[in-house]
Automatic annotation (TrEMBL):
Keyword terms, alphabetized: Calcium, Disulfide bond, Glycoprotein, Heme, Hydrogen peroxide, Iron, Metal-binding, Oxidoreductase, Peroxidase, Pyrrolidone carboxylic acid, Secreted, Signal
Gene Ontology biological-process annotations: hydrogen peroxide catabolic process; response to oxidative stress
Name listed for the protein in its UniProt record: Peroxidase
Reaction catalysis annotation: 2 a phenolic donor + H2O2 = 2 a phenolic radical donor + 2 H2O
Enzyme class, broadest EC rank: oxidoreductase
Domain Plant heme peroxidase family profile as annotated: residue spans: 24-322
Cofactor(s) essential for the protein: heme b; Ca(2+)
A GO-annotated cellular component: plant-type cell wall
GO molecular function: heme binding; lactoperoxidase activity; metal ion binding; peroxidase activity
Cofactor binding: number and manner: Binds 1 heme b (iron(II)-protoporphyrin IX) group per subunit. Binds 2 calcium ions per subunit.
Disulfide bonds: C34-C114, C67-C72, C120-C318, C199-C224
Species lineage: Eukaryota, Viridiplantae, Streptophyta, Embryophyta, Tracheophyta
Length: 323
């Protein structure tokens, strides 16, 4: 870092110029065109998270589901418009994803301040960062300049998003397809230190998993009976210790077999996971390390296949393609 200050200004300017021409994302993308963007998004997220802490988690998840399915292009936000079926109806998202109203509200405020300039995909990336920070997590500079898709993919939402029943090889493969190392996957999964899951997402784990703490499982069985639809949508915190605080307790839970999802526990207890279990132990021992690696992985996740330059569009409303 120290060496950076010796690089002549002209060279730095050149670097900035090149990265822009390259279609790269950059944190100051809207510096001239939407000066108040960051404060508008942050203000709206403060209101949303004060009203309901869980919203910080819900918006973070929305960004993940956007980025893993045809890139961070706001595709997850598009409504079904028959015969078009979008990502919202896919099994991983239906009756589960939340936060769409919050994003709509932020978009309306941003459009009022800077009409037609800021994409829904960028608003979502900023809101996910702010949600993380408001729950006590790390911050990072959000690279910007994404544009919005004109379509979405119901099929890819089923293919590219891992299921809670996934084993560790499935998970490593799913994250590998998006360019992540197993270590980065372990860091990103730490997002499950906040928010909730429904019984239908962890039922099998309570009744069939060998890798679950029986005391923990028995307690959860009370509201999540062995077969549905009874209890299907009953909510439990992904982090049994501190559901509304972004900390490293997720990893503490894994070490005592109290991960809520089968997929969570697989990172510690799955077959051949000595390496990943070691990473979990490192994050468990140092929230500073976890925060740093989570933030870096979020920047990387936010950079998956963005539409830039003249590709795509800036949607006027996040739920609909412009006419
Ligand atoms: C490792 C693979 C992953 C799997 C299998 C997975 C699966 C799930 C499932 C099943 C739920 C609960 C859904 C429900 O029951 O309605 C959930 C919630 C959540 N996920 Fe993941 N997830 C994964 C990775 C991630 C990543 C990488 C992030 C973000 C960086 C993330 C953020 C969240 C958040 C914050 C929630 C809580 C949302 C809320 O309370 O509204 N997840 N995830
Ligand atoms: C969405 O649009 C992109 C870019 O035009 C295209 O490559 C992709 O195949 C389209 N996806 C679907 C599901 O139509
Ligand atoms: C993981 O699950 C997949 C199916 O999702 C299965 O094909 C594979 O054999 C499993 N791997 C291990 C190591 O259990």
């Amino acid at each position: 870092m120290a060496s950076i200050k010796f690089i002549p200004c002209s060279l730095l300017a050149l670097v900035v110029l090149f990265s822009a021409a390259d279609g790269q994302l950059r944190p100051d993308f809207y510096a001239a065109t939407c000066t108040n963007l960051a404060s508008i998004v942050r203000g709206a997220m403060v209101t949303a998270v004060s009203a309901e802490r869980r919203m910080g988690a819900s918006v973070l998840r929305l960004h993940f589901h956007d980025c893993f399915v045809q890139g961070c292009d706001g595709s997850v936000l598009l409504n079904d418009l028959p015969p078009f079926v979008g990502e919202k109806s896919a099994a991983n998202n239906l009756n589960s994803l939340r936060g769409f109203d919050v994003i709509d509200g932020i978009k309306a405020s941003v459009e009022a301040a800077c009409p037609g300039v800021v994409s829904c995909a960028d608003i979502l990336a900023l809101a996910a960062r702010d949600g993380t920070v408001l729950l006590g997590g790390p911050t990072w500079a959000v690279p910007l300049g994404r544009r919005d898709s004109t379509n979405a993919s119901f099929n890819l939402a089923s293919v590219d998003l891992p299921a809670p029943s996934a084993n560790v090889s499935d998970l490593i493969a799913a994250f590998g397809r998006k360019g992540f190392t197993p270590r980065e996957m372990a860091a990103l999964s730490g997002a499950h230190t906040v928010g909730f899951a429904q019984c239908r997402s962890f039922r099998e784990r309570l009744y069939k998993d060998g890798s679950v703490d029986p005391v923990f499982a028995d307690k959860l069985k009370a509201n999540c009976p062995a077969s549905g639809p009874a209890g299907d949508s009953f909510l439990e915190p992904l982090d049994v210790l501190t559901a509304s605080v972004f900390d490293n307790n997720y990893y503490h839970n894994l070490a005592v077999r109290r991960g809520l999802l089968h997929s969570d526990q697989e990172m510690y207890s799955g077959t051949g996971t000595e390496y990943l279990a070691g990473v979990v132990n490192q994050y468990r021992g140092s929230s500073t390390l976890f925060f740093a690696e989570f933030a870096a992985a979020m920047v990387k996740m936010g950079s998956i296949d963005p539409l830039t330059g003249a590709a795509g569009q800036v949607r006027a409303k996040c739920r609909f393609v412009n006419h």
